[in-house]
Amino acid sequence: MRESLSSCCCHAGASAVLRANSEPADWRRARAGRTPAGATLFASLSIEALIGKQNSDGGWPYIRGVSWTEPTAYAVMAMHAAGEVDSAARGLEWLQSSQRSDGSWPPQRHVDQSSWVTALVALLPSKLLDERAHARAIRWVLLSTGQESTSVYQFRQWLLGNPPLPDTDFPGWPWIPGTAAWVSPTCMAIFALEKETRLHPSAAIDERVRTGRRFLLSRTCQAGGWNHGSARALGYETKAYPESTGQVLAALSGVNTAEVQNALGLAAGYLAETRCADALNWLQLGLMAHHRLPESYSVPADIRYRSVRDAALGFLVAAAKEGRNVLFD
What we know:
The protein is mainly alpha-helical. The chain has 15 helices and four strands. Helix 10 packs parallel to helix 12 and helix 12 packs parallel to helix 14. The chain is globular and about 55 Å long.
């Protein structure tokens, strides 16, 4: 039977109330026209705007076009945090139908390749994603490692007479299987495994997180902070990037070393200087992980979130600042 107009209005009103109670304060102030300096970016990046970017297949694009796993995972988390049940359910269906037979996710449905985005999808609550699908994803992440740390690769290099690569004692995670470990996928894997072991304690997961963190610490740049890969390349010391530094600080939550303390000072400086939405998202999360984000901080008014990924993560950051850290808790 067709739903009556009155019931539709009631449903819309209930959804509006739920959304108003779920949105971070910055987003609510923007909607009401009471946005303080530094939060105006939320005025055009409402939950409705993110829903409007959702494709007919249930997934989300980076900006426009076909659906991709990374923006879809972030958007589903944002929808879940905002109480947008229908939109989240459609996104979850897209993710569930995209999982590969080995438990991983490809970057995009038509790309026949397991990838790092598996860890990002595994940040979704298992009851939302499907407990069996979630368990398979966690197992895939747990068993993944950078190629340079495998015994097979190291033995092959020995047979070829090549000198051992530096900093391979502690394995990180690669973007795709069979390649070298990098900082960002290692952080994502740590996020997923840490969240899992808090709910279901596991000595194996704890040990893998420990070695992953040692990998990150071994990649600290000489001047502090982190970039996407090695601290030294082609004979030159590399410089830190704001987004990588914020991401690693979040992955090193609870770790108190000289490298971390130095990076926290660097991150505070980046936070005041950078105008990149992705960098600001991760810098805020990294500083929050160590209780170093000033309570009065608000995102500069000239920041523009130019992709679904950045906007959805921005929503999650704003929610985390209010004590609802859907991403990690």
